[in-house]
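For anyone still unconvinced, we reproduce a single protein record, the chain in one-letter code, the fold tokenised, and leave readers to judge:
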Amino acid sequence: MKSIAARTTIAIGLLAVAAFGIAAWLSVRNATQVQSESATAQISALAEAQAYRIRLAMESTLAKVRGLAETAEAEMAQPRPDRFYLHDLLRRYTERDTTALGYWLEFERNAFDGRDAEFVGNNVVAISTIGRFTGYWVRNDDGSVTAEVGGETEDIGAEDYYASARDLGGETMFEPYPYDVSGVEVLMTSLMVPIFRDGEFRGVAGADVALAGLQEQLAAVRPYGSGVLRLYSPTGMLMAGPEADQLGKPGVHPRMAEILAAAAKGESLLIEAEDAAAGGAAMQYFMPFRVGADDPRHFVLSVSAPVAVVFEGVTSIRNRVLLIGALSAIGLALAVRFILVLLVRRPLAQTVVDVSALAEGKLDHPIAGRGEDEVGQVAGALRRMQRDLGARIEEERRVAAVNHRVRRALDGAAAGVMIADADGTVVYVNEAAQRSLAGMAAAVRAAVPGFDPTAPEGQSLRALYPGIDEVAASGEVRIVPLRFGESHVQLALAALRDDRGRVAGLVANWTDRSDEVRTEQEVNALVGAASEGRLDGRIALAGKSGFFLQLGTALNRLLDASASGIAEVQAVLAALADGDLTVRSQAPLHGVFAQMRDDANATADALEDVLAQIKLAVGQIHTASAEIAAGNQDLSVRTEQQAANLEETAASVEELTASVRENADSARAGREVAAQAADVSGRGAQEIQQVVSSMQGIGEGARQIESIITTIDGIAFQTNIL
């Protein structure tokens, strides 16, 4: 259905059908309500009439039983009550009342005339075994009546029918029960009146009524042709009805408890239920009524009328209304379609052409329609849309070109970039970030379950950093370190805002710092080792590139230069420590290491000169000592005055010896200083300066030795003079 006219026709047709349907429903509902009220009135009237007939028939018999009871009470008042009189009266009652099955009298023991003992063995007017007064006349099938004799019920008070009248103390109609009459089981009920004497209960007068006649009476009444009537006892037993196999049984109706509850209140009840005897769904009206002036219980007469028949007229009305409504709706729809085609479809056809041209991007297509009606207004709106679309398309082209350039720039950038919308969903990931994520995919999956690093677009940025809302609220750039296994990432987050200052999204700069962190760790380890005097470590250059390769190469060259320079100085100092003053360093060093080399060589040269001077001084001292010894030998024969001078000379010699010893100690100190210089040479230029200072001390000691030698020369000169 592509045509507006067709759809509108169908819509209006359906609306008309709905309207006619609602009207028909309201009409049918009102008719149904009226018919229901009418049927209810008819059924209730029928129920009341039939209940009245039943009550009238039963109370007619009950009136005769009442007269029989009154006659028995009057007879008991006689000086000598006559059993045979009452027995014969029972016969006459039975003969005259053709509606009754029989009449009977039952008395308590010795309650009638006090002469039960006299009637022991009499089975006509007494129980032969005990003489209790009893009598029962029954109607035969041929209409004759006979007396039932030979009754053997000694304890009449145990019989239910008898006990009910006695306990009630008034007129009553008993529940239906089967009874054997002349060898035939008959379903009947008993109408009973209690007999009193001076207010004391003496017995019961009753009439038995077969329910067959009542059943025939109710079966003859068929409301609405196929309806049925039923009679229920106060306890719910079926007394009359079409279900012959259920007669005398309780609970025939599934809602019997509800029915009896209403009857106990004296209220009628109308329900709708399935009734097979009535041919299906039926309206069922239950009318409670009482039998007897003293019995508070209610019998229930049920009238069941088939719903289909009751509302047959309503159904016919409904069908006619629906038919008329359908035909009217079809006619209205056809008329509407003709009008729509004439007034709407043709003008809209040109509008469809114009809209199709706009949809195809033909923004230069001339739009027809200049009227003031709705079609003209639509045409005017289309022309405005045409202009707006042209401007918008041009703007979108400009924005698309800018976006394309930005995207190409971001895709070519070395740094990783992610862009997320205001909800935190990733909408763009450049190639650098994609490569970085793919390279650490396994570690990312292990650290962030549920996040697919191979397809980040469409996933939430919160999975990588849950605090993106705080970043958006603060408006500041936040640097977040992330770690995925052995991979280290720096995430720089910032909010993107529109012209109104609202958060439009988030941009994240994704930087893989794994190589940088590893290089930092290697440099820290290398510096730590160097600070401990271990210069054998180097930075591994495999797998490094760019800045980190240059940094590693430069550090390795620095360590090589430091190690070689210190090693050269250490070799010179070690030789000095071993007493070898011939070792010199000729390594091609530069800068401070060249200065250290030259200082070490100069130290060795200075030590060598000092030791040569010491050796020369020692030789001179040895010669002087020899000369002094010879002079002493010559002077030993001289005067004792020279002894004092000799003692002075000996003291001077001791001083000289002490000086020589001091010089030897200074030489040893120089060796120890040289050894210390070798130990600390690895510490750089500062240690070399300390060595130079020590060597200056040695030079000072040498100058003192020179002074001592000068003194010794003076003493020798004086000795020579002496």
The CA atoms of residues 192 and 206 lie 4 Å apart.
